[in-house]
């Protein structure tokens, strides 16, 4: 079945550091890929998405590129801020209108 | 515009009681999803509605769980004879369907004593 694997957390960084959170997936066909972010006490917010190979999703300084050859969708940001502290979830959707399959989530803490 | 609204935000109940959780999707969204988020299990899919029909209910963990959607809008998730393992945050999401991304509510935190 479909699965998503994220790098183990938690991740702790200093402000302005470079961020990478690794995500790899297993799925048949060509899934759509997503990164969601969850702030304390809140639901999930869509951060970015990519729907086909080599697409790059970007938002709020975060980027991720859909790499079919390595089945990966790693999240990057060049300079993190304290306000980026949250839990980040990688997810896939295999067919239109279907469920999201989530990774385990990665807790990010950014210290001033 | 208004996002996905869930109520109540918190629910504490005794083991064995029934509970109902409500989800108001974004206006115009035809697809609606329920997920459960719990420690150790991560985010699990429960059920998917397209309009008032549920083409995928394969994630419901037992026959104590049921859900319905009326008027292509509001959905209710019902858990009968609650057990302690039902304690979790229940998240609702909606979308325009197809490959459009899902938008989540803030969830209902359910605690079973």
Question: How does the SSE layout of this entry go?
Answer:
The complex is a heterodimer of chains A (112) and B (113).
Chain A: E1 3-6, E2 11-14, E3 19-21, E4 23-26, E5 32-38, E6 44-50, E7 56-59, E8 62-65, E9 75-77, E10 86-93, E11 101-102, E12 106-111
Parallel strand pairs in A: 2-12
Antiparallel strand pairs in A: 1-4, 3-9, 5-6, 5-10, 7-8, 8-9, 10-11, 10-12
Chain B: E1 5-7, E2 10-13, E3 19-24, E4 31-38, E5 42-50, E6 53-56, E7 65-69, E8 75-79, E9 88-95, E10 103-104, E11 108-112
What overall form of chain B do the CA principal axes indicate? globular
Helix segment tally of chain A: 0
Flag low-confidence runs of chain B: none
**What coarse outline of chain A follows from CA principal-axis ratios?**
globular
Spatial gap, N to C terminus of chain A:
41 Å
Mean pLDDT of chain A: 93
Structural class label of chain B: mainly beta
Task: Please report the two chains with the greatest interface, counting residues with C-beta closer than 8 angstroms to the partner's C-beta.
Answer: A-B, 23 and 25 residues
Strand content of chain B: over 45%
Could you give a short account of the major beta sheet of chain A? 6 strands, mixed
- The level of helicity of chain B is under 10%
Task: Give the helices and strands of chain A as they follow along the chain.
Answer: EEEEEEEEEEEE
Q: On the 0-100 scale, what is the average pLDDT of chain B?
A: 94
Report, as a whole number of angstroms, the end-to-end distance of chain B. 37 Å
Query: How would you characterize the largest beta sheet of chain B?
Result: 7 strands, mixed
